[in-house]
Amino acid sequence: MERLCPECGEKIIGRSDKKFCSDACRNAYNNALNKDSKNLVRNINNRLRKNYRILEALNSKDKTKVRKETLAKHGFNFTYFTSEYITQAGSVYKYVYDQGYLPLDNDWFLLVKKDS
Q: Strand 83-86 relative to strand 63-67: parallel, antiparallel, unpaired?
């Protein structure tokens, strides 16, 4: 029985369990198959990197206060963070890797950096 490559339709020559005619076809097929999930991951990672750069730039002294409007003006997106830390008092710090922020009263935020 003749087997055909699912990517290009060429005849497959070689081992009986071979599924593609070449590495290029195998890669093209799998890249197309995983494109949506890879785009999602890439977009989230880009968003996290941008948030990290904003926090790092605004928090040059490892602990500072900024207004919410300052974060927003720089394009900070509060939806994306990597972890949370809840203190015994119940305060919730959100972190983007080692850069964190804590909402304070009147639209102020405390920016902190985790010790390495």
A: unpaired
